[in-house]
Amino acid sequence: MKIALIGYGKMGKAIEEIALQKGHEIVLKISIDNTDEFIDAAIQKADAAIEFTGPDSAADNIRKCANAGVPCVSGSTGWLAKWNEITDLVKEKNGAFLYGSNFSIGVNLFFELNKYLAKLMKPYSEYDVSLEEIHHTQKKDAPSGTAITLAEQVLQEIKRKKNWVNAPSNDKENLVILSKRIDPAPGTHIVKYSSEIDDIEIMHTAHSRKGFAVGALLAAEFIKGKKGIFTMQDVLFG
User: Fold this and answer.
1) Peptide bond before 71: cis, by omega within 30 degrees of 0?
2) Above 90 in pLDDT, residue 47?
């Protein structure tokens, strides 16, 4: 298939390497240095676009793809305040869009494990739950999109927690997410249930960007020719 890479940083280059190995063609590469080339005629050469940029540009990039009629896969985080606006536009254009806070197959399995553990822990109020995420110092947003997804899954089940906060808190109704920025960490996420008697902890640690790149490419292969709004759950679990 023909792929447009919107964002040609470390992730874009990792995706390109795997895509070429699988016989795909990269027909457009957009970085901060050539945004003038991000026009309908260029993007429409692609069967799908994969967008990995930043919180300030992601929504505009996805909007451009929707207006050009090209399915878009986005792994950018920090832009979800515009979620309804973007998904309404995709539906209006009868397009296709897939967002993932994390494209790693392992992380998406971890999401399922997190939901199941939260459901098991729901009756046991003696356990307090908290999250920790560790990323490299170049990551622009905190908490990570993956940590927010994990937190929202916990809040769905653990009703004694009312909202998440990205700072230490003594308020038992707050679900604390601690964010650490340490090089060269690609990404670690920990969900911990603590009581006076014991702790229960689940953790996912990425060893490289390859897992994210493989998953993003899998998502692009999935979305080609489709219409609608999708997630990695659709890709992996139908």
Assistant:
1) no
2) yes
